[in-house]
Amino acid sequence: LLFPVSNLCGKCRPRDTDLLQPSLNFLYWSLHQTTPCSQQRAVAVLLSNVSLLELLQKVLECTWLWSPPCRPAYLSSEDALLCSGWLLVASLLLYQHRYNTEVHQTLSVDLTEVLNAVIFRNKKPILLLVSIMQFLRAVLQQNFSSSLLVIVGQNTAAGGTQLQPSSLQDTALHPLAMQQVSSLVVSLQNLLVHKDLLLSQAVVACLETLVEYLYVKNQDVALHVASQPWHRFLLFTLLSGGQKSFLQPEVLRLMTLFVRYQSRNIISQKEISQIVHEAAEANIAELPEATSYALHLFLSQV
């Protein structure tokens, strides 16, 4: 089915949302819900379809064109298509790198537009924001070096000002700049305060990947980002309200991040002991899967 569905997508226009959106979803799930052997073949089929990749290029570009001043409260068909497009491209980036699949057509993405989508949000639906962050995670994990992707807009900061490449930090973090990193971290912190489960999971995962990328590029910058005092206030905010337990997936993963990069001003021995105490009193078998996984990562890191 991948052949006819991918060929059908290649014959569509981005405005054919009723046909494209379920088709792209089918391609996405075909990549994720199959055996490793079949997955490698599926990636090869999709990446060999030039017309499909050209269509995906147009869909991604529509993210910056379809930006009405007042978006509806619900997810429109156009936004749903954009979500499917970004998620599929993120998956193709991941699996192309894993299997070193031959690329017949590259995709071009403006890094400044991607960062601005997260930094400024502009009332984008949460699901679209999550999809773009999934893409950003994929390119960060691959050090912006995917053979499938061409990054443009590397010399423009968030807000449209030109960056001066004279900074040693900017040179080390290329194609990111320190100004972009700072703006992105602040935006991710602010998005966590919304306490939306899907958004929180995506934000924490993006923050984890960003700090890992920074640590490889410049350890001082990574440790500076991980030890920002605002993180501690963020933890108190996440723990406020009805659910005060440390055994929340996003809280545990943030704590794991701070332990990994030794941010002693953010997480103290007292918090670590409290988490261990709560874990000891909890019925581990009844914890949600996401919580169990996050707790495992935390204890392993400790």
TrEMBL record:
UniProt-listed GO biological process terms: meiosis I
Stated name of the protein: MEI1 protein
Organism: Zosterops hypoxanthus
